[in-house]
Specification:
15 strands, binds 4'-deoxy-4'-aminopyridoxal-5'-phosphate, globular, alpha/beta, 2 domains, Aspartate Aminotransferase, domain 2
């Protein structure tokens, strides 16, 4: 038989989803594992949003919709963006998709030709590099360290630009580090983008999950930057709606119409029913979001307080999202619970085996001195997970 495509055979599976599946599988087998893998809120979708979904089923919202999404939803998204982020768009600037992940994929398909380069600051969210490769394009990784709070500098960006560079992907706040670019930093990066005639994919899916500092959308920096920016967002994280699969892109009309063409030949419209639930999410008062954020803030504080008392691991205080990017490099060259630790991957595997705690090794995000913990799980799980971590660091197994 002939081989499957070169592109397909070069794609790695999503490590974040794999870890979360593994911990669910272990749990189903009766193993008492605690999952800190996928970044998925443990809260249930707020009731009013669920009811809107139920009503959509009962009122027969069961047909195809406009490919880029129902007009009321695109109108509600425009109003929401204006109210929350102070940026003005029209419905024709919005394309709704089956999750933010999909519209990131479509954005790259629309912007890139084979051989184009995309600048990707590391640590990066696991999906970007693979989605770039799916276009036959090349991710150009810019490494960052704790010294710059994992943020790229304009000089660093400038020095990575070649004739083939098409765009930069910036996640703000970041998954996996939780770091937030402030307005001045965005301006400086935006100037480099404009000067070099690049596009910016601004993944702002964690924009409402900020505990330290003020979130500013890249599209709010200037009209020039807005024109060449694709803003990505969606309902998954903000409204605890990961399984409903609704995301959107906001961009100039040419890009949006090219995206709609792509969608029209691939998934078609996002689920009609889920669009009505998202319409409720974006139109209702945001009280449930505030309540969830208060819980996330408590968990974050508890997590960083506990880690600050541990001497073999450390973390920077994240500004936003719901991840702790834990530096485990001090354990390298030692043995924990009888396992040699020389990388984040070793650490993560040994912690799962002996501590019954699932984390994502930093290699999935481009830096294997770290492991990522999602604190989108209950305080009870966080407390017990950190107890198990402490035991593991003292080479006392839980399993
Ligand atoms: N961007 C980032 C940075 C993420 O962490 C996620 C998590 N799933 C997504 C996009 C995609 O979200 P979804 O497809 O659930 O809308
Ligand atoms: N984005 C989340 C994470 O990074 C969910 C998993 C995924 O979609 O990859 O864990």
């Amino acid at each position: 038989m002939k081989n499957i495509s070169k592109i397909a055979s070069g794609i790695e599976p999503s490590a974040t989803l794999a870890i979360s599946e593994l911990s669910k599988e272990l749990k189903a087998k009766g193993v008492d594992v605690i999952g800190f893998g996928a970044g998925e809120p443990d809260f249930t979708t707020p009731d009013n949003i669920k009811q809107a979904g139920i009503k959509a089923i009962e009122t027969d919202k069961s047909y195809y919709t406009a490919t880029s999404g129902i007009l009321p939803l695109r109108e509600a998204i425009c109003k929401y963006i204006n109210d929350i982020f102070g940026v003005q768009y029209e419905p024709s600037n919005i394309c709704v998709s089956s999750g933010a992940k999909h519209i990131i994929f479509i954005s790259l398909q629309v912007l890139l030709d084979p051989g184009d380069e995309v600048i990707l600051p590391a640590p990066y969210w696991v999906t970007y590099a693979e989605a770039i490769k799916m276009c036959g394009a090349v991710p150009v990784i810019l490494d960052t360290t704790e010294e710059t709070r994992f943020k790229i500098t304009p000089e660093q960006l400038e020095s990575a630009i070649t004739d083939k560079t098409k765009c930069l992907i910036l996640t703000n706040p970041s998954n996996p580090t939780g770091m937030l670019y402030n307005e001045d930093e965005l301006k400086a990066i935006g100037n480099v983008i404009i000067k070099n005639d690049l596009y910016l994919i601004a993944d702002e899916i964690y924009a409402t999950l900020v505990y330290n500092g003020k979130f500013v959308s890249a599209a709010a920096i200037s009209s020039e930057l807005k024109e060449r920016t694709i803003v990505i967002n969606g309902v998954s994280k903000t409204y605890a709606m990961t399984g409903w699969r609704i995301g959107y892109a906001a961009a100039n009309k040419q890009i949006i119409s090219a995206m709609a063409n792509y969608l029209s030949h691939s998934t078609g419209n996002a689920s009609n029913v889920a669009q009505y639930a998202a319409l409720e999410a974006y139109s209702c008062d945001q009280e449930s979001v505030k309540k969830m954020n208060i819980e996330f803030a408590k968990r974050r504080q508890y997590f960083i307080d506990r880690v600050s008392k541990m001497d073999k691991v450390s973390c920077l205080e994240p500004d936003g999202a719901f991840y702790i990017f834990m530096n485990v490099s001090k354990t390298f060259g030692t043995e924990l619970c009888g396992e040699k630790i020389n990388s984040g991957s070793d650490f993560s595997q040994a912690l799962l085996k002996h501590g019954l705690v699932a984390t994502v090794p930093g290699i999935a995000f481009g830096n294997d001195n770290y492991v990522r913990w999602s604190y989108a799980t209950s305080m009870e799980n966080i407390t017990e997970g950190l107890n198990r971590l402490e035991k593991f660091l003292n080479s006392e197994p839980t399993a």
